[in-house]
């Protein structure tokens, strides 16, 4: 039998895997930002308040997750299961031949890193080097990247140009002709890239910070 605590803990894990807080997940799902807040989980008179099936369905859609994956998150042991994904440094990511035409790591000699369970087999990891992405990501941080995950306005993404430049930024706008990116350093101006110059774009799902 499922318990109140199990369902709410699974929603917390779902939010964390999407790189969001519970309130951030609710907002992305089109719900009131306080829907998943801890203060809403128990009524004023102490009764347990359960999330509705509609709110869970919207949260899953917003996180790009399935009901099967949510069931696994309910299980504490399953939530801790990990898997290995390819690990590349930023310098390596810019080299010719590092990725195939679909934006997936290619070639030999890659190392692997164990990271939280992900929804698809296309996920890989990048290790941040230097301070170019501070204050959001620091030297040595690992980011989990998925070329197959849906991307929305406001997501943090990795973009590789056809010239081999690898950029980490927040997606401001995406059209058939261009990408508008906001550098992680808020003091820098927005940047536009022609769609024809983009080799691939992938969403950041998780960071090791």
Question: Can you describe what's shown?
Answer:
The two termini are 35 Å apart. A hairpin with a 7-residue loop joins strand 7 (178-183) and strand 8 (191-194). The protein has a 9-stranded mixed β-sheet with strand order 2-1-3-4-9-5-6-7-8. The model is unreliable at 77-82 (pLDDT under 50). By secondary structure, it is of the alpha+beta class. It is built from 6 helices and 9 strands, in the order αααααβαββββββββ. Helix 1 (4-17) packs parallel to helix 3 (53-63) and helix 1 crosses helix 4.
Summarize the structure.
With 209 residues, this protein is of the alpha+beta class.
Comma- or semicolon-separated keywords:
single chain, alpha+beta
In terms of topology, how is this protein built?
Elements: H1 4-17, H2 22-28, H3 53-63, H4 67-74, H5 76-80, E1 82-89, H6 90-93, E2 111-116, E3 124-127, E4 142-146, E5 156-161, E6 166-174, E7 178-183, E8 191-194, E9 198-207
Parallel strand pairs: 1-3
Antiparallel strand pairs: 1-2, 3-4, 4-9, 5-6, 5-9, 6-7, 7-8
Helix pairs in contact: 1-3, 1-4
Q: How much helix, percentage-wise, in residues? A: 10-25%
Average pLDDT taken over every residue: 82
The number of helical runs is 6
Looking at the structure, what is the overall shape? elongated
Give the DSSP E fraction (strand runs of 2 or more residues). Answer: 25-35%
Largest sheet: 9 strands, mixed
How many DSSP-defined strands? 9
Helix- and strand-based class?
alpha+beta
Q: Tell me the distance between the termini.
A: 35 Å
What is the string of helix and strand elements?
Answer: HHHHHEHEEEEEEEE
């Amino acid at each position: 039998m499922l318990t109140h605590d199990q369902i709410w803990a699974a929603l917390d894990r779902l939010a964390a895997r999407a790189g969001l807080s519970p309130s951030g997940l609710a907002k992305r799902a089109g719900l009131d930002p306080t829907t998943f807040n801890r203060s809403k989980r128990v009524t004023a008179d102490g009764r347990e308040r359960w999330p509705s099936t509609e709110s869970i369905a919207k949260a899953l859609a917003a996180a790009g997750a399935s009901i099967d994956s949510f069931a696994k998150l309910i299980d504490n042991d399953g939530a801790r299961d990990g898997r290995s994904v390819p690990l590349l440094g930023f310098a390596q990511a810019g080299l010719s031949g590092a990725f195939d035409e679909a934006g997936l790591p290619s070639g030999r000699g890659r190392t692997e890193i164990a990271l939280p369970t992900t929804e698809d087999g296309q996920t890989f990891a990048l290790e941040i080097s230097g301070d170019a992405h501070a204050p959001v990501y620091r030297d040595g941080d690992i980011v989990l990247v998925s070329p197959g995950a849906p991307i929305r306005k406001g997501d943090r993404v990795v973009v590789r140009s056809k010239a081999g430049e690898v950029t980490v930024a927040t997606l401001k706008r995406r059209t058939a002709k261009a990408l508008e990116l906001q550098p992680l350093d808020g003091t820098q101006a927005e940047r536009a890239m022609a769609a024809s110059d983009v080799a691939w774009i992938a969403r950041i799902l998780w960071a090791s910070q």
